[in-house]
Amino acid sequence: MNTTSTLSVIIKDQDLPEQLRLIAQKVSDQKRITFEEGVYLFEHAELGYLGALANHIRERKHGDKTYFNKNFHLEPTNLCVYDCKFCSYSRLIKQKDEGWALTLEEMLDVVKKYDGEPVTEVHIVGGVLPQYDVAFYSA
User: Fold this and answer.
1) Which residues does residue 124 pair with via DSSP β-bridges, in sequence order?
2) Please, which pLDDT band fits residue 30 given cuts at 50, 70 and 90?
3) Angle in degrees, CA 55, 65, 1, rounded to 5
């Protein structure tokens, strides 16, 4: 089944909430969804539904091609001023004895390990610390 017929099935599926059918119709019509619709998808849509929408857009833009990148994660610190519910590894400042904070030199050492590798992205993730500002990373 191609993505156009997949979306047609979704749009006609009376068991789906009307809002999900309307969003699928917008995607089929090549219309951009709103911020509020994105929030609705986050709160209510199943992963398979989201995958069908995403695949439809990907195939429309790129045909049957799929693109991958080769990346590695650089995690400068797991210490953080925030307590985000989705984060699985951060430590609050008051828990600093359980965390780590790399120096700029240590971060560069991590990056240098990939010299000569066909890396297309350095994915920097980690905690938020006031001293890790733009000036720190641009040194």
Assistant:
1) 74
2) very high
3) 45
